[in-house]
C-alpha cells in the first residue's frame, strides 16, 4: 500500500505551503484499522471534538469524522494505518498507510527529565519526542521515558506506560496524554489504580508495559538500571482486558 492523503475526503495530490504552515498548529489521532474496525473509535471521536474545541474554539461533528474515515477506508482492503490531523479547525487531513503490526521485542528505556507541552493534547509538536528518542538510542537504549524533577514518571515518547504488581495495574498520575489504547485497556480492567510512580519505586514493580495505537502491551525490558523479567500474571490480566473490548466499525 502506498501512502495516500485525503483532504476532507478528497484525494490530495499537491501539498500547498499554506497547508504545511497550518499543520504546525494542529492536533491529530492515529489508529490501526482492521477489517474496517478500530479499537476505541468512540474515544477517538470524543477526543477529536474536545481537542478541536480547545485548540480552535469550535466543535467537530462525529459524523464528519466518520465520513472522512469511510472515504479513506474505501481506498484500502479494510486494513490500514490512519492518521487524521485537524488543521485550522475546519480541514481534516487523513494520511493512509499500510497497517503496522505490534512490536514483539521488549524495550530498554532511558529516563529523561522532561514534560511535553500541553501533555493532555495529541498535537503536532513532536520535535522533543524525536530528539529525546534519538538521544536515548545514541546512549544505547531503545527509547526514552519521561519523568519530572521529583522522579515521577509520566509517559514515554510515543506511548503511555503502566506498571504491574502481581495482577494490579498502575497508571502514572503525572500529567500525560490519556491515550486511546490506554483508555480501552482501563475499560477492560476489573480494577486498576492511578497513582504516582517514581523512579525509586521501580524495583517494587514486577513489570512495565507500553501502550499506543500500534502496541497494546509492549513489555519493558528495563528503565535505566532497573530490569524487568517477563511476568505471566500481569500479561494475562492485560490480554483479558483487551479481549473483553470489541473493536468498533468505522
TrEMBL record:
The lineage of its organism: Bacteria, Bacillati, Actinomycetota, Actinomycetes, Propionibacteriales. Coiled coil: none annotated. This is Aminodeoxychorismate lyase. Keywords: Aminotransferase, Lyase, Transferase. The keyword Zinc does not apply. GO terms for molecular function: lyase activity; transaminase activity. NCBIfam families: PRK09266.1. The keyword Nucleotidyltransferase does not apply. Transmembrane segments: none annotated.
